[in-house]
Amino acid sequence: MTQLIIRQKFSTPVRRDEVEGDWDIRGFDCHSFSDPPGKEWNDFIHQTNELLTVVVGQLELTIENKTILVQPGDEVFILKGAIHSVKNCNNNHTNWLFGYD
Length: 101
What we know:
By secondary structure, the chain is mainly beta. The chain has a single domain, classed as Jelly Rolls, CATH 2.60.120.10. The protein has 1 helix and 9 strands. The longest helix has 10 residues, at 16-25.
């Protein structure tokens, strides 16, 4: 799991344009999401690779039964076909970015 996350890849405060530029060079698009406290997205599987970065707040991310806490600026790579779930474990809204290749 450690090879799937780069801690503090992006400096805080995280700027969408910086993330978008980095991901574009690597062939990924970039979309934003904002989730209320406790919001969960469970058991997703995509046919493309995915990148995820928290802008504000924190997410609990489970990939193939391994759970990590994702902080602002961390980047997570989710391999296509991997079962994954995301939960806003913050007391406030969590804003995050995701993209597919």
